[in-house]
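Section: Multi-chain targets

For targets with more than one molecule, the full set of components is provided together so that the structure can be written out for the assembly as a whole rather than chain by chain. Components appear in the order listed by the source. The example entry contains two components.
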Amino acid sequence: MAVKRKPKLAVWKFASCDGCQLSLLDCEDELLAVTDAIEIANFPEASRSVTRGPYDLSLVEGSITTPHDAERIHKIRRSSKYLVTIGSCATAGGIQALRNFTDVKEFVSIVYANPQYIETLSKSTPISDHVMVDFELRGCPINKFQLLELISAFLNGRKPNIPPYSVCMECKLRGIVCVMVSRGITCMGPVTQAGCGAICPSYNRGCYGCFGPKETPNTDSLSKWWKQKNMSDDDIVRAFRGFNAYAEPFRKESEAHER
Amino acid sequence: MLNRFGKRVRLMKGRTIKVNYLSRVEGEGGLYIKIKGDKVVDAKFTIFEPPRFFEAFLRGRRFTEAPDITARICGICPIAYQMSSVHAMESICGIRVEGQLRELRRLIYCGEWIESHGLHVYMLHAPDFLGYEDAIQMSKDYPDIVKRGLKLKKTGNDIVTLLGGREIHPVNVRVGGFYRVPRKKELQALVDPLKWARDAALETVRWTAGFQFPDLEQDYEFVSISHPHEYPFNEGRIVSGKGIDIPVEQFFDHFEEQHVKHSTSLQAVIKERGSYFTGPMARYALNYDRLSPIAKEAAAESGIAKVCNNPFKSIIVRSVEILYACDEALRIIENYEMPDHPYIEVRPQAGTGHGATEAPRGLLYHRYTIDDDGIIGDARIVPPTSQNQKTIEGDLLNFVPKNLDLPKDVLTWQCEQAIRNYDPCISCSCHFLKLKIERE
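Its structure, encoded as tokens over all components, is:
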């Protein structure tokens, strides 16, 4: 019987902090087992060696911010059987998408003494604005156990078990008393997708939305609750303009409160 | 002719060495060296990481958001960004964080050093010395060593996770202290793993000291934070081996940033003197006597001098710092008493403040201006890799001419290794162009 070849994994980076791909190396207890099951064919942060494509699974970190990168992602898509985006930059444009809310033409003319040195696009956009994406892992950073679940699901030909419900569910599951109800701390948990394990509320602070919008988020209702707690429109804008500012529900809500 | 790994190679005929995409570094950079005759006419450590403009979008944000936002500059050293930003903000608002809260900040920094240095020593740098493309391949021949490295790194991550909530972009650091402080019992859980890690770090020093080191010694100007009683993390003056001794707020009186075409990162230099060196070798050279006894003994046993001038040996110094960080973490946990309040209440007041701390890969300087409502009007950040960039190029200019007889693929690999000596974090280094130009 022919030996089945190991599937090939590639990790790609666009504009980002490297934290999400580091999550793979942070799987200290599982890393060697992962590499037994899957061939790391292209992962420059970890290895000099590069195996040519096509790749069975591509993990893409970072957002598209340069004309060169807008081309490069198409090449990666063509050489990838499955393409999964990891983290807020790749799924929503990241914190660098805050540039999307400024008047870029004016900004550039004020700012660049030598614009010919730098190539940058006016907007930071998620990978799914450019190519078809098979699955998205949320988070700033992603949760490494969700990453392992994703790889495991891929190896076994099943759909990853990544719940789309809110952080509130995780608080309830962990038995954390609601910080907003009991202590009046403003929290984005009700509109933010689960996955982190409700870390912030367990450390006595409100969620700041780093996993991006949950399915069908009621951002308008949350803003009304915040206003009852005397939160200003400026602060509401800042809350929704965080690491997932350009994700549509958060973007629309922040624009509704902009003066 | 055979290369050092027994592979047949051609002697170097090409007159350029080029690596388009450097591996085993954080971020996107390359290498370009041009040779004429037996002279190197150009050496560039190119950085093409797309700029993300943190200093631009920090304007208009609340001062309390700076630690969470700047952490996103780097997924490998988020604590460093959180620490430099909170110290800058606290200096504006006129508060000092002392006692156990200060100790907890040192402890979380120990975690980041162990994690980041562990990653670099075992996963990114050691494979160069032993002739492997990566640590996964290395694990086929040295499974126990790679496992030791992973476990060591995990011990660092466990400290950051306990104190910060998660290992990457922790959530618990705030201006004035922490959102929640651990109970004594929670920290006790780290004691046994840290004792193991301290032994493993000692083994790491011995292991790395046995490597073969290419010959390269230069008269560097080392720059680091220095504190009279402690090996530096969060606090102290900025000192150099050639006479600089200044408070943090005078950073820009002595250092400046230059904009070069081949890099989306600015290059920092000492005014009128040029390049300098920051990171583990600088800290070690300038603060040797404040290492703990066990770290000093291990350094002495490894054979490195009190001032080490061969950047390839940075892997030994990094290992000594892992050992120190484990030892220091144990000291802090042993003396820990849970503070009554997790943070000091900080009211904003208009002003400008500075913070400089020691990221795993070197000095990280932040400056902010805020108004009476605590809204940021101006931000400036100088990360370690933009400070080392010119020194790295200087190393290549010196290293290549002495080694032109090496086969091209060996020389190329050694040049990559020369860059990895600095554990460059390219993602960190290049978010700074816009505001620089705006000021001019």
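The longest strand of chain B covers residues 39-47.
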